[in-house]
Amino acid sequence: MFPRGADAYIDELASVVPMRSGMIRTALDTGCGVASWGAYLLKRNILVMSFAPKDNHEAQVQFALERGVPAVIGVLGSIRLPYPSRAFDMSHCSRCLIPWASNEGMYMMEVDRVLRPGGYWILSGPPLNWKTYHKVWNRTKEECKAEQKRIEDYAELLCWEKKYERGDVAIWRKIINGKSCRRTSANICQTKDTDNVWYKKMEACITPYPNVKDSDEVAGGELKKFPARLFAVPPRISKEMVPGVTVESYQEDNKLWKKHVTSYKRIVSLLGTTRYHNIMDMNAGLGGFAAALDSPKLWVMNVVPTIADNTLGVVYERGLIGIYHDWCEGFSTYPRTYDLLHANRLFTLYEDKCEFEDILLEMDRVLRPEGSIILRDGVEVLNKVRKIAAGLRWETKLVDHEDGPLVPEKIFVAVKQYVVEGDEDQNTQNDE
Predict the structure, then answer these.
(1) Which residue among 284, 295, 380, 432 is least crowded, i.e. fewest CB within 10 A of its CB?
(2) Backbone angles phi, psi at 52, to 5 degrees
(3) How far is CA 202 from CA 32, 196, 197, 290, 307, in A?
(4) DSSP string spanning 287-306?
């Protein structure tokens, strides 16, 4: 995929896309393969959400996660991607085999929905450079030319400006607001909530930009460069787009999570080191846990449950990555792909929605042997969790809240044991 090496390929992209400035922090890699692009960008302080299906190449996503690269099992098909609108600074496809020119441009329109105003779309591979490769692809010149023309037409309809084309690579930039878009006619999506995507069918319609007052304003709000963006007030909060969250409550949340993470590091001494690299926050809220933990030694998958307040857009505006999910279902990953799981009041949230056993079994599935779990919740709920965890052979302990034993919220810490077949036989004999 990268004949001159991934670094040289990324350097070519960086000649157009301002990757070194801090403006580009979150990216989407569609049809990522083993996520090499994401792996090389991770060391450049850019977080890439990579996804690929399990196909004839088998467990590519599992390999990516074992490399320590963020990835999920996924596909651009008929259902909207589980990410909020205006989430990513950049989207990428390198020979990803997605038929961009088909279905009335529906897949490009979905990328447009999740791409931030001013963000970049990179296409690398077919049908670009068709004059050179059409015989290798066993396709006619006319067919390839027509496919690229349709992609160009849909990009123009979406008001993406073409910034670069050379060899196998083309780069477009999404304009910063709708005022400068000169499209003659387009099917604009009618839905008011563009983040309501869980099990919603993808449509061949264009997501409208948020309104702006003048042509120089970035629709949805301008973001600071990373790392200042991590603790700056996100535009969704300053513009009062998240019900119940104010600038003051956001700042208080940050202070609280810095305090919580300091406490966690006393309880789990290796937290913040290379021991825990792939981390998941199962009820991420405003992303305070991941922000307080921020380190080049790790990354956090911030999960916003579909039944919780929709705060995932804030998470992305902070320069973090995440995904929507319903914890009554399995998560889109392979077994043993995370080193540490964290959840704040997740079990209280799901108390009347599904069985605790099902959630805990899924946690056990995705957690690596000798991986850790940190839960914050009410003492009654955590006592129920602890009884079930005993059956999973986790090593557990219940710790008092940072503010003392009189606080009803407690901290549950567990370590998944490394069990081999002989151990199971011995445990069975002991039980008998």
Answers:
(1) 432
(2) -155, 155
(3) 20, 11, 9, 30, 21
(4) THHHHHH--TT-EEEEEEET
Q: What angle do CA 357, 270, 292 make, to 5 degrees?
A: 80
Burial of 389 (C-beta count, 10 Å sphere; 0-12/13-18/19+): buried
d(CA 295, CA 146): 46
The alpha carbon dihedral of 212, 214, 217, 221 has a sign of negative
> Which tokens go with 158?
């979406």
Q: Is the pLDDT of residue 430 over 90?
A: no
Whole-number Å distance between alpha carbons of 409 and 155: 51
Task: Write down the number of H helices and E strands in the chain.
Answer: 14, 14
Give pLDDT tens digits for 169-193: 999 999 999 988 877 678 999 988 9
Q: Is the pLDDT of residue 420 over 80?
A: no
In which element (H, E) is residue 265 found? helix 247-267
| Helices within 276-350 (DSSP H only) | 288-293, 312-317, 346-349
Q: Which helix (H) or strand (E) holds 25?
A: none
- Condensed to tens digits (0 to 9), the pLDDT of residues 250-304 reads 999 999 999 999 999 999 999 988 999 999 999 999 999 999 999 999 999 999 9
Please give the C-alpha separations between residue 239 and each of 199, 246, 426, in angstroms, as whole numbers.
28, 9, 60
Q: For 52-75, how does the pLDDT look when each residue is reduced to its tens digit (9 = 90+)?
A: 887 666 688 999 999 999 999 999
Instruction: Tell me what pLDDT residue 422 has.
Output: 64
Is the preceding omega at residue 227 within 30 degrees of 0, hence cis?
yes
Q: Which residues contact 191 (CB under 8 A, 6 or more apart)?
A: none
Residue 187, number of CB atoms within 10 A of its CB: 13
Angle at 47 between CA 349 and CA 253, to 5 degrees: 40
| Diameter of the chain measured on Cα atoms | 77
Edge-to-edge order in the sheet of strand 71-73: 71-73, 47-52, 26-30, 88-94, 115-124, 169-174, 160-166
Residue 383 to residue 161: CA distance in whole angstroms: 56
**Length of the chain in residues, anyone?**
432
Question: DSSP readout, 121-149?
Answer: EEEESTTTTHHHHTTTTT--HHHHHHHHH
Question: How many whole angstroms separate alpha carbon 422 and alpha carbon 420?
Answer: 6
